[in-house]
Amino acid sequence: MGERRGTMVHGSSCRDVSTMLCLADAPTGRSVQARPKAGDGGNTVSGSSRAYFRRCAPGVVLAIAALLASACTGGGSSSAAGQTTLNVLMVNNPQMLDLQRLTADNFTARTGITVHYTVLPENDLRARAGQEFAGQAGDYDVATLSNYEVPFYAKNGWLAPLDDHVKTDPGFDQADVLKPWTTSLTGQDGKLYGEPFYGESSFLMYRKDVLAAKGITMPERPTWPQVAQVAAQADGAATGMKGICLRGQPGWGEVISPLTTVWNTFGGGWYDQSWNALLTSPQTVQATQFYADLVREHGEPGAAQSGFTECLNAMLQGKVAMWYDATSAAGYLEGKDSPVAGKIGYVAAPVVHTQSSGWLYTWAWAVQKASRNSDAAWKFISWASGKDYEKLVGGELGWSKAPAGKRESTYLNANYLYASHAFAEQTQEAIEAADPRNPGVQPRPTLGIQFVGVPEFAALGDQVSQGISAALAGQGDVATALAKGQQLAEQVAAKYRG
């Protein structure tokens, strides 16, 4: 598909022309070129397909940083006639699109700081952020990064620490931020490099009315075999309705995220504590085959192109009876404009051999070290991740859409608890139950539930996801995909083993 233009940042020819990326087939080092496309910057959730990119591992990105810096002239943030403009690179998740709509009339009106957003699908966002922050051209001041990227970006010197800003902004109340996020967004040097916009785990969402009509009772802590049974019973309960929606779109942040939690609870995973790859272990193979069979038999049509946004739309439109995904989705299912509000039930992430299986993830704001407007960038972050922004969303869009999962005070707010009573307790329990140190049945070599905490994982996960997505589409098989993935995983492990 051709490039789609959304809300784009103005200034740098490097960014507007979408400089060709070096995307590494790590660990082989073979590089290809692909042109990122702009995301849909509109006010609704986009259901269009997303281009898939294999991102450069941070080490590869560093190798081309000098070339990028010489090719890109710093445009980006500017101050003219006393007015400051911030350029923000942002994922196109619903919470961010809400923020985009609210910025001009609230943040800009109060501070005089204009914000230009570049809004991209998740895979594209990661590719662009890796390129931009490695080159340090300063074209973007702020970007949405996750608790996976922030430690590596900080170690590479690509991010500006936020500690001094936090100290001089007591109203932000860092102590109110949930400790897992402050810890995961702190670098090895002990400095803080990110602030969460929202935090999430994962759980199972289901249509209470559909299951009730079928005489089905959903357990509060279901197993995956139970979920498969319910999916079979609910399949076809309404015209065009499928039993379940599961991500199948390529990308470590797409299909690999939920699939890895299934691996963990089945007894598989990426690596054991000694860095032995587990992709061809009987448990990982069984888990992957289970996931593929469930999607093929009772999942959404076109699963290989379905990610978070597509499954959210399918649930909103009554096309699926269940959905296993991020807890953050609940606010949109229960929104005042949602056609399924009040019809959804929420239970713990399904398990097999573990007590819990939900992931732990945050989209956070980070400031590029090369930004020339760090003070303005902090004002934006303090607003977007602050308590008052949650109140703004509550008043303007409804409290169920407040970007939750990041502050203790959110779960003491009577307005939020009233609006989100259907899922607030389940969300908090899922975040607290998630254990990145011990997500499966065997010790792991790094922290992380739905990812492995090394820079090479982004490229590895992307490569493995291609074979998985192809298997879901009927263009390959699980065993072949995992066998290839095992070889790639062993190449990464060789760097760390011993």
Structural class: alpha+beta
- Sketch the topology as an H/E string, one letter per element: HEEHEEHEHEHHHEEHHHHHEHEEHHHHHH
Number of separate strands: 11
What composes the largest sheet?
Answer: 6 strands, mixed
Shape: globular
Number of helical regions: 19
Radius of gyration: 22 Å
Structure description:
The chain is α+β, with helices and mostly antiparallel strands and 498 residues long. The chain has helices at residues 13-17, 58-71, 94-111, 122-135, 149-155, 163-167, 179-184, 208-213, 224-234, 256-266, 282-298, 308-316, 330-333, 374-384, 387-396, 414-419, 424-433, 457-472, 478-493; strands spanning 21-24, 31-34, 78-80, 83-91, 114-120, 142-146, 195-200, 202-207, 322-326, 344-348, 361-367. The strands form three sheets. Strands 3, 4, 5, 6, 7 and 11 form a six-stranded mixed sheet that branches. A three-stranded antiparallel sheet has the order 9-8-10. The longest helix has 18 residues, at 94-111. It is globular, with a radius of gyration of 22 Å.
Keywords:
six-stranded mixed beta sheet, alpha+beta, 12% strand, three-stranded antiparallel beta sheet, 498 residues
The gist of it:
The protein has 19 helices and 11 strands. By secondary structure, it is of the alpha+beta class. Strands 3, 4, 5, 6, 7 and 11 form a 6-stranded mixed β-sheet that branches.
Protein topology:
Layout: H1 13-17, E1 21-24, E2 31-34, H2 58-71, E3 78-80, E4 83-91, H3 94-111, E5 114-120, H4 122-135, E6 142-146, H5 149-155, H6 163-167, H7 179-184, E7 195-200, E8 202-207, H8 208-213, H9 224-234, H10 256-266, H11 282-298, H12 308-316, E9 322-326, H13 330-333, E10 344-348, E11 361-367, H14 374-384, H15 387-396, H16 414-419, H17 424-433, H18 457-472, H19 478-493
Parallel strand pairs: 4-5, 4-6
Antiparallel strand pairs: 1-2, 3-4, 6-11, 7-11, 8-9, 8-10
Helix pairs in contact: 2-4, 10-11, 18-19
